[in-house]
Amino acid sequence: MSHGIGRSGDIAAIQPKAAGSSLMAQLTNLMVLDALKISGVTEVKAALTVPLCTGMSISLVLLGLRLHWKAPAER
């Protein structure tokens, strides 16, 4: 769904050849903004989500978990 996002050099720009992806990106940004406001962050004026591949997502999660869990040899 992220095909064409940011191809113009501006990641938030609407892409004329990828109308579906642009629509999904705009809807996602609005839903994230709404979720932030519901959670109590009322000063936020805009949100920007960016596509991330599966491998990078897993890598970021594992790196985050590493901060909380140490290997037995490090304890």
Describe the overall structure:
It is built from 2 helices and no strands. It has one domain (19-74). Helix content is 47%, strand content 0%. 3% of the residues are buried. The termini are far apart. The mean pLDDT is 81. It has helices spanning 19-38, 54-68. The protein has 75 residues and is mainly α. The radius of gyration is 17 Å and the shape is flat.
**Average pLDDT taken over every residue:** 81
Overall shape = flat
Main sheet? none
Number of domains: 1
Count of helix runs: 2
Poorly predicted segments: none
- Helical percent range? 40-55%
Topology diagram in text:
Elements: H1 19-38, H2 54-68
Properties at a glance:
75 residues, 47% helix, flat
Could you give a quick summary of the protein structure above?
By secondary structure, the chain is mainly alpha-helical.
